[in-house]
Design goal:
The chain has 247 residues and is of the alpha+beta class. It folds into three domains: 2-67; 75-182, no CATH class; 186-246, no CATH class. The protein has seven helices and five strands; from the N terminus they run ααββαβββαααα. The strands form two sheets. It has a three-stranded antiparallel sheet with strand order 3-4-5. It has a two-stranded antiparallel ribbon with strand order 1-2. Helix 5 (189-199) packs parallel to helix 7 (225-246). It is elongated.
Length: 247
Protein backbone atom coordinates (compact mmCIF):
# COMPACT_ATOMS: atom_id res chain seq x y z
CA UNK A 1 0.00 0.00 0.00
CA UNK A 2 1.32 3.52 -0.83
CA UNK A 3 0.50 4.83 2.65
CA UNK A 4 2.39 1.97 4.31
CA UNK A 5 5.43 2.60 2.10
CA UNK A 6 5.35 6.29 3.02
CA UNK A 7 5.23 5.41 6.71
CA UNK A 8 8.12 2.96 6.32
CA UNK A 9 10.26 5.53 4.52
CA UNK A 10 9.37 8.18 7.09
CA UNK A 11 10.34 5.90 9.98
CA UNK A 12 13.65 5.05 8.31
CA UNK A 13 14.46 8.73 7.74
CA UNK A 14 13.44 9.57 11.28
CA UNK A 15 15.83 6.89 12.56
CA UNK A 16 18.68 8.35 10.51
CA UNK A 17 17.99 11.85 11.82
CA UNK A 18 17.90 10.65 15.44
CA UNK A 19 21.19 8.81 14.91
CA UNK A 20 22.78 11.92 13.42
CA UNK A 21 21.51 14.09 16.28
CA UNK A 22 22.95 11.64 18.79
CA UNK A 23 26.33 11.81 17.06
CA UNK A 24 26.27 15.61 17.03
CA UNK A 25 25.29 15.71 20.71
CA UNK A 26 28.18 13.42 21.70
CA UNK A 27 30.69 15.44 19.70
CA UNK A 28 29.43 18.73 21.13
CA UNK A 29 30.07 17.44 24.67
CA UNK A 30 33.57 16.22 23.83
CA UNK A 31 36.15 18.97 24.54
CA UNK A 32 38.48 17.34 21.99
CA UNK A 33 35.91 17.71 19.21
CA UNK A 34 37.02 19.29 15.94
CA UNK A 35 34.68 22.30 15.53
CA UNK A 36 34.97 22.27 11.73
CA UNK A 37 33.85 18.65 11.69
CA UNK A 38 30.97 19.46 14.05
CA UNK A 39 29.81 22.34 11.85
CA UNK A 40 29.88 20.10 8.77
CA UNK A 41 27.80 17.50 10.59
CA UNK A 42 25.28 20.14 11.64
CA UNK A 43 25.05 21.38 8.04
CA UNK A 44 24.57 17.79 6.87
CA UNK A 45 21.82 17.33 9.46
CA UNK A 46 20.08 20.48 8.21
CA UNK A 47 20.19 19.20 4.63
CA UNK A 48 18.84 15.81 5.68
CA UNK A 49 15.95 17.44 7.54
CA UNK A 50 15.16 19.72 4.59
CA UNK A 51 15.18 16.77 2.19
CA UNK A 52 12.96 14.74 4.50
CA UNK A 53 10.53 17.65 4.85
CA UNK A 54 10.38 18.14 1.07
CA UNK A 55 9.69 14.44 0.48
CA UNK A 56 6.94 14.47 3.09
CA UNK A 57 5.46 17.62 1.52
CA UNK A 58 5.43 16.09 -1.96
CA UNK A 59 3.90 12.82 -0.78
CA UNK A 60 1.16 14.56 1.20
CA UNK A 61 0.45 17.04 -1.59
CA UNK A 62 0.03 14.24 -4.14
CA UNK A 63 -2.43 12.45 -1.85
CA UNK A 64 -4.28 15.67 -1.06
CA UNK A 65 -4.82 16.37 -4.77
CA UNK A 66 -6.83 13.17 -5.07
CA UNK A 67 -9.31 14.44 -2.48
CA UNK A 68 -9.35 18.13 -3.40
CA UNK A 69 -13.00 19.01 -4.12
CA UNK A 70 -14.30 21.17 -6.92
CA UNK A 71 -15.34 24.61 -5.68
CA UNK A 72 -18.94 25.60 -6.23
CA UNK A 73 -19.54 28.93 -7.97
CA UNK A 74 -22.06 30.76 -5.82
CA UNK A 75 -21.22 34.45 -6.29
CA UNK A 76 -22.18 36.63 -9.25
CA UNK A 77 -19.66 38.99 -10.82
CA UNK A 78 -21.48 42.32 -11.03
CA UNK A 79 -19.47 43.31 -14.12
CA UNK A 80 -19.65 40.15 -16.26
CA UNK A 81 -22.83 38.68 -14.68
CA UNK A 82 -21.04 35.32 -14.50
CA UNK A 83 -20.89 33.10 -11.44
CA UNK A 84 -17.57 32.46 -9.67
CA UNK A 85 -16.24 31.00 -6.42
CA UNK A 86 -15.16 33.73 -4.03
CA UNK A 87 -12.40 33.43 -1.42
CA UNK A 88 -14.80 32.31 1.31
CA UNK A 89 -16.15 29.53 -0.93
CA UNK A 90 -12.62 28.32 -1.69
CA UNK A 91 -11.61 28.36 1.98
CA UNK A 92 -14.75 26.49 3.02
CA UNK A 93 -14.17 23.78 0.40
CA UNK A 94 -10.43 23.16 0.77
CA UNK A 95 -9.48 23.81 4.40
CA UNK A 96 -10.78 20.47 5.77
CA UNK A 97 -8.80 18.57 3.13
CA UNK A 98 -5.70 20.67 3.76
CA UNK A 99 -5.92 20.02 7.50
CA UNK A 100 -6.32 16.27 6.92
CA UNK A 101 -2.97 16.12 5.11
CA UNK A 102 -1.14 18.55 7.37
CA UNK A 103 -1.23 21.71 5.25
CA UNK A 104 -1.91 25.32 6.11
CA UNK A 105 -1.79 28.55 4.13
CA UNK A 106 -0.91 32.11 5.05
CA UNK A 107 -0.47 35.35 3.12
CA UNK A 108 2.04 38.18 3.18
CA UNK A 109 0.76 41.52 1.87
CA UNK A 110 3.15 44.33 0.92
CA UNK A 111 2.04 47.71 -0.39
CA UNK A 112 4.22 48.88 -3.26
CA UNK A 113 4.36 51.92 -5.49
CA UNK A 114 3.12 49.74 -8.36
CA UNK A 115 0.22 48.32 -6.35
CA UNK A 116 0.00 45.41 -3.92
CA UNK A 117 2.23 42.34 -3.65
CA UNK A 118 0.36 39.24 -2.42
CA UNK A 119 2.46 36.23 -1.46
CA UNK A 120 0.76 32.95 -0.59
CA UNK A 121 2.69 30.49 1.59
CA UNK A 122 1.66 26.82 1.63
CA UNK A 123 3.09 25.17 4.75
CA UNK A 124 3.31 21.48 5.67
CA UNK A 125 3.55 20.01 9.15
CA UNK A 126 6.90 18.39 8.28
CA UNK A 127 8.44 21.85 7.90
CA UNK A 128 8.65 22.42 4.15
CA UNK A 129 6.85 25.34 2.52
CA UNK A 130 6.18 26.63 -0.98
CA UNK A 131 5.15 30.13 -1.97
CA UNK A 132 4.03 32.15 -4.97
CA UNK A 133 3.58 35.89 -5.46
CA UNK A 134 1.34 38.15 -7.52
CA UNK A 135 1.89 41.90 -7.92
CA UNK A 136 -1.31 43.69 -8.87
CA UNK A 137 -2.15 47.32 -9.62
CA UNK A 138 -4.71 48.84 -7.27
CA UNK A 139 -8.35 48.32 -8.20
CA UNK A 140 -9.29 52.00 -8.47
CA UNK A 141 -12.85 51.35 -9.55
CA UNK A 142 -15.50 54.04 -9.61
CA UNK A 143 -16.74 54.98 -6.16
CA UNK A 144 -13.99 53.09 -4.29
CA UNK A 145 -11.97 54.78 -1.57
CA UNK A 146 -8.22 54.17 -1.28
CA UNK A 147 -8.81 51.64 1.50
CA UNK A 148 -11.48 49.82 -0.50
CA UNK A 149 -9.15 49.68 -3.51
CA UNK A 150 -6.47 47.94 -1.43
CA UNK A 151 -9.04 45.55 0.06
CA UNK A 152 -10.50 44.60 -3.31
CA UNK A 153 -7.07 44.02 -4.84
CA UNK A 154 -5.89 41.98 -1.86
CA UNK A 155 -8.95 39.71 -1.90
CA UNK A 156 -8.57 39.15 -5.63
CA UNK A 157 -4.88 38.33 -5.24
CA UNK A 158 -5.44 35.93 -2.34
CA UNK A 159 -8.02 34.05 -4.35
CA UNK A 160 -5.78 33.47 -7.35
CA UNK A 161 -2.62 32.83 -5.32
CA UNK A 162 -4.42 30.20 -3.25
CA UNK A 163 -5.74 28.50 -6.39
CA UNK A 164 -2.22 28.50 -7.85
CA UNK A 165 -0.68 26.98 -4.70
CA UNK A 166 -3.28 24.21 -4.47
CA UNK A 167 -3.65 23.63 -8.22
CA UNK A 168 -7.40 24.18 -8.16
CA UNK A 169 -9.69 26.09 -10.49
CA UNK A 170 -12.73 28.17 -9.66
CA UNK A 171 -14.45 29.74 -12.60
CA UNK A 172 -12.99 31.54 -15.59
CA UNK A 173 -9.98 33.79 -15.19
CA UNK A 174 -12.19 36.68 -16.29
CA UNK A 175 -14.59 36.10 -13.39
CA UNK A 176 -12.60 38.43 -11.21
CA UNK A 177 -15.00 39.06 -8.29
CA UNK A 178 -15.41 42.71 -9.19
CA UNK A 179 -11.71 43.49 -9.49
CA UNK A 180 -10.97 45.51 -12.61
CA UNK A 181 -7.40 45.86 -13.79
CA UNK A 182 -6.22 49.37 -13.02
CA UNK A 183 -4.38 49.39 -16.34
CA UNK A 184 -7.79 49.23 -18.04
CA UNK A 185 -8.86 52.45 -16.31
CA UNK A 186 -5.73 54.58 -16.11
CA UNK A 187 -4.19 56.78 -18.77
CA UNK A 188 -1.59 55.35 -21.13
CA UNK A 189 2.13 56.11 -20.60
CA UNK A 190 1.99 58.53 -23.55
CA UNK A 191 -0.94 60.38 -21.98
CA UNK A 192 0.86 60.48 -18.63
CA UNK A 193 3.90 62.05 -20.33
CA UNK A 194 1.62 64.62 -21.97
CA UNK A 195 0.20 65.57 -18.58
CA UNK A 196 3.69 65.75 -17.06
CA UNK A 197 4.83 68.09 -19.84
CA UNK A 198 1.94 70.41 -19.04
CA UNK A 199 2.63 70.22 -15.32
CA UNK A 200 6.22 71.29 -15.92
CA UNK A 201 4.84 74.58 -17.25
CA UNK A 202 2.56 75.16 -14.26
CA UNK A 203 3.09 76.95 -10.95
CA UNK A 204 4.02 75.26 -7.69
CA UNK A 205 0.48 75.80 -6.44
CA UNK A 206 -0.95 73.89 -9.42
CA UNK A 207 1.62 71.14 -8.83
CA UNK A 208 0.60 70.86 -5.18
CA UNK A 209 -3.12 70.67 -6.00
CA UNK A 210 -2.47 68.07 -8.69
CA UNK A 211 -0.39 65.84 -6.39
CA UNK A 212 -3.00 66.10 -3.67
CA UNK A 213 -5.74 64.96 -6.04
CA UNK A 214 -3.97 62.44 -8.32
CA UNK A 215 -0.54 61.70 -6.90
CA UNK A 216 1.22 61.44 -10.25
CA UNK A 217 0.16 61.59 -13.93
CA UNK A 218 0.10 57.82 -14.26
CA UNK A 219 -2.73 57.57 -11.72
CA UNK A 220 -5.23 59.63 -13.71
CA UNK A 221 -8.32 57.76 -14.87
CA UNK A 222 -8.83 57.66 -18.62
CA UNK A 223 -12.25 59.20 -18.19
CA UNK A 224 -10.67 62.22 -16.46
CA UNK A 225 -7.82 62.73 -18.93
CA UNK A 226 -9.48 65.32 -21.19
CA UNK A 227 -10.63 67.38 -18.23
CA UNK A 228 -7.18 67.32 -16.62
CA UNK A 229 -5.48 68.42 -19.84
CA UNK A 230 -8.02 71.20 -20.33
CA UNK A 231 -7.56 72.37 -16.75
CA UNK A 232 -3.76 72.44 -16.99
CA UNK A 233 -3.86 74.28 -20.31
CA UNK A 234 -6.22 76.79 -18.73
CA UNK A 235 -3.82 77.30 -15.81
CA UNK A 236 -0.90 77.79 -18.20
CA UNK A 237 -2.90 80.29 -20.26
CA UNK A 238 -3.92 82.29 -17.19
CA UNK A 239 -0.34 82.37 -15.93
CA UNK A 240 0.89 83.60 -19.33
CA UNK A 241 -1.73 86.38 -19.42
CA UNK A 242 -0.86 87.43 -15.88
CA UNK A 243 2.81 87.59 -16.82
CA UNK A 244 2.04 89.74 -19.88
CA UNK A 245 -0.08 92.13 -17.83
CA UNK A 246 2.69 92.39 -15.27
CA UNK A 247 5.11 93.44 -17.96
Amino acid sequence: MPEERHQSVALHQQGQEISMLSTISRLALDPRCDMDKLERLIALQDRMEAKSALEAFNASFAEMQCEMPSVEKRTENTHTKKMYADLDDINFAVRPVMAKFGFGVSFKIINQAAGVSITGILMHKAGHREETTMILPLDTGAGRSAVQSVGSTTTYGKRYVMCALLNITSGDDNDNDGYVEATDQLVTPAQARQVQALLDKCSEAVHANFEKKYGDPGQIAKSAFDGVVAGLNNSISKAAKAAQQGN
